């Protein structure tokens, strides 16, 4: 696949957890991630089960790319927007265009998210996702203006999942798109906003039918016990 090659996979693999957690500690870790992710989501009220779907989409893409720790990556990706806890509610829920000051506050959620998560070594990868999931393949993103392979692989995966789910979702500033319309938009963004290789992996998931199933209400439940069982 163009864009996300084996070197990226190896780089991601080197950032995996050192020793596997026992069942109890893994459950506790997943519960902590879920709780923090939901707190951020409730602050940004209209996103519903966004973090649940992000976990599932990221996990599917990661498996398609051959990453061995796809499940853990899915959980780390749930925390991509935790920095929004620092953004004023009136900015998050504003239905109209943001002012320059409001846009700066919104974009700063990437840096704040990294700061929140980087305090714990076990959250290092999640911190990188929080900082870099709005970077763009062509360098037009934020906060660092990274391009192509400079963007961490896990952030590129999360970015594709985030765009797809955000388009399908009904937000205060936009109406929901159909699944097919959203997927086509993601494909159109390959090579500009998104990593072409990751978009290709997403298309393969769609062709297998597993991706579309995530957007069916019966595919997930918004509770931590379900997430643990699934993970």
Describe the structure.
The chain has helices at residues 6-13, 23-43, 50-64, 70-77, 89-92, 100-107, 109-117, 124-132, 153-168, 179-188, 196-208, 210-213, 224-230. The protein is mainly alpha-helical. It has one domain: Orthogonal Bundle (Hypothetical protein af1432). Helix 2 packs across helix 13 (224-230) and helix 8 packs across helix 9. The radius of gyration is 16 Å and the shape is globular.
> Could you tell me the radius of gyration in angstroms?
16 Å
Strand segment tally: 0
Order of helices and strands: HHHHHHHHHHHHH
Mean of residue pLDDT values: 85
The N- to C-terminal Cα distance equals 27 Å
Q: Percentage of helical residues?
A: 55-70%
Global shape: globular
Ranges where pLDDT stays below 50 over 5 or more residues in a row are 6-21, 222-231
CATH superfamily: Hypothetical protein af1432
What is the annotated CATH architecture? Orthogonal Bundle
- Number of domains in the coordinates? 1
Main beta sheet: strand number and arrangement?
none
Count of helix runs:
13
Task: Sum up the structure in keywords.
231 residues, mainly alpha, Hypothetical protein af1432, single chain, disordered C terminus, 57% helix, globular
Overview in brief:
The protein is mostly helical and 231 residues long.
């Amino acid at each position: 696949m163009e864009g996300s090659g084996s070197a990226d996979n190896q780089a991601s693999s080197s950032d995996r957890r050192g020793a596997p957690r026992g069942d109890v500690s893994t459950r506790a870790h997943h519960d902590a991630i879920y709780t923090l992710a939901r707190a951020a989501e409730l602050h940004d009220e209209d996103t519903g089960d966004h973090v649940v779907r992000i976990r599932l989409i990221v996990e599917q893409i990661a498996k398609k790319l051959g990453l061995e720790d796809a499940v853990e990556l899915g959980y780390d990706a749930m925390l991509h927007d935790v920095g929004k806890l620092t953004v004023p509610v009136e900015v998050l829920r504003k239905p109209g265009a943001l002012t320059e000051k409001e846009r700066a506050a919104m974009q700063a959620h990437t840096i704040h998210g990294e700061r929140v998560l980087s305090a714990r070594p076990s959250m290092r990868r999640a911190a990188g996702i929080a900082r870099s999931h709005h970077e763009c393949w062509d360098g037009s993103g934020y906060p660092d203006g990274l391009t192509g392979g400079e963007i961490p692989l896990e952030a590129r995966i999360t970015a594709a999942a985030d765009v797809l789910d955000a388009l399908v979702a009904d937000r205060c500033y936009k109406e929901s798109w159909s699944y097919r319309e959203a997927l086509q938009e993601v494909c159109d963004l390959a090579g500009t906003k998104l990593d072409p290789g990751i978009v290709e992996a997403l298309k393969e998931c769609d062709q297998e039918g597993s991706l579309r199933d995530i957007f069916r209400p019966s595919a997930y439940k918004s509770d931590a016990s379900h997430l643990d069982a699934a993970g």
